[in-house]
Amino acid sequence: xxxxxxxxxxxxYDPAKGDPDGGIAKxxxxxxxxxxxxxxxxxxxxxxxxxx
Amino acid sequence: MENVYSAVKVTxxxxxxxxxxxxxxxxxxxxxxxxxxxxxxxxxxxxVTLIDTVKAPFxxxxxxxxxxVIDPAKIKYIISNHAEMDHSGCLNEVIDLIKPDKVFAxxxxxxxxxxxYHDQHEIVPVKxxxxxxxxxxxxxxxxxxxxxxxxxxxxxxxxxxxxxxxxAFGMHLATLERFxxxxxxxxxxxxxxxxxxxxxxxxxxxxxxxxxxVAATGWKIKIIAPDHGPIxxxxxxxxxxxxxxxxxQKPANKAVVIYATMWHSTEKMARAISEALAEAGVRTSxxxxxxxxxxxxxxxxxEAGALVVxxxxxxxxxxxxxxxxxxxxxxxxxxxLIGAAFGSFGWSGEGVRDLETILKEMKVEIxxxxxxxxxxxxxxxxxxxxxxxxxxxxxxxxxxxSS
Lengths: 52, 403
Prior knowledge:
The complex is a heterodimer of chains A (52) and B (403).
Chain A: E1 4-6, E2 12-13, E3 49-51
Antiparallel strand pairs in A: 1-2, 1-3
Chain B: E1 8-9, E2 14-16, E3 19-21, E4 26-27, E5 30-31, E6 36-38, E7 41-43, E8 49-51, H1 59-67, E9 77-80, H2 85-88, H3 91-98, E10 102-106, H4 107-117, E11 124-126, E12 131-133, E13 138-143, E14 153-157, E15 162-166, H5 185-200, H6 204-217, E16 223-226, H7 236-248, E17 254-260, H8 265-279, E18 283-288, H9 294-302, E19 306-311, E20 313-314, E21 317-318, H10 320-332, E22 338-345, H11 350-361, E23 365-366, E24 371-374, H12 379-402
Parallel strand pairs in B: 8-9, 9-10, 10-11, 15-16, 17-18, 17-19, 19-22, 22-23, 22-24
Antiparallel strand pairs in B: 1-2, 2-7, 3-6, 4-5, 7-8, 12-13, 13-14, 14-15, 20-21
């Protein structure tokens, strides 16, 4: 599964880690994140992310 | 006015050419009773370079200070380390006036400046780690995204061992003293902590990573020149250690009781809770938001372990002062707190429940169920408040013992 980078703040979404604070379990692919999921660092929307 | 404002020498080749704002009291919602400074720096290299500019109304003050060293038209480069308006508000006017060869910013800085000013000046993006030769000196850029805007970057001047750190290590403090060693250390600590709590706190994880990145560069740094407040030339190690401590957000043996009250009932509860916390050996600050400002609350929460919040219920809601404070605190993302909500109500009591909901959204660990008292608390009710204080104190001690 691919990592995705936030184009605003540089945060990297790693599917292996998920986003526990945002309620996203380990092993969740970026594509499977809910549409309303936002960058845990800067709050940017999902469409601001690009593959690493 | 031309001769009133002079530059201040920072090193042999670097001058402070910023502006002092003695009058500002509200910095986008952060109260600044001591005013602020907008720091800009002139590097007298072969290619004369200006680091950052100042808030728009202070353009002439900055130009006067530059003129005390050199004709501003001789400036070849301008670097924008941070696009926020207090550092770029006069950038376009200054470009028109001095016509530099080039203006540089981070890639996101270029985009941000375009979106802020919608003008046609070309701004050249620099990459993370890129070096710019000024002839006899060299600048190196480091992206510091989200400290505290996406565009933010540091600029390092190797020949003077000087780091231009934009808002990092800054403070809102208007003084004629320009250096940290000219000011009392307790003033530096209070103002730097207030600034950290109100501006930098949400990005604490990035602060820790950035400090590691800076250490890994091997840069020798003898001066840190921020965009607000004094220049650090003596207490660098001390302020860096404080940043590490604030960013780590380890819980401390401190409680902050923040409340707003209508007819003093919630206040009586706050006093009883606070007295019990203090009696149990917890350092306790109590802030009535009827009198305090949200940014003072943020300062108090920075080094706390417990956040206890209270409100009366007004028209089925919490008091607006508490809604204001809680919205602000939630955005600042303080971590590792335990807490509880309390308050008096007349007939419905939604305010306290809403406060507890916000605490949960802030990931504050609820140490005790919310405590609501109808109307004026009597002796028995105040004893329950004291019990709440004791419970929070015990929970905090457990947490400190296990962390």
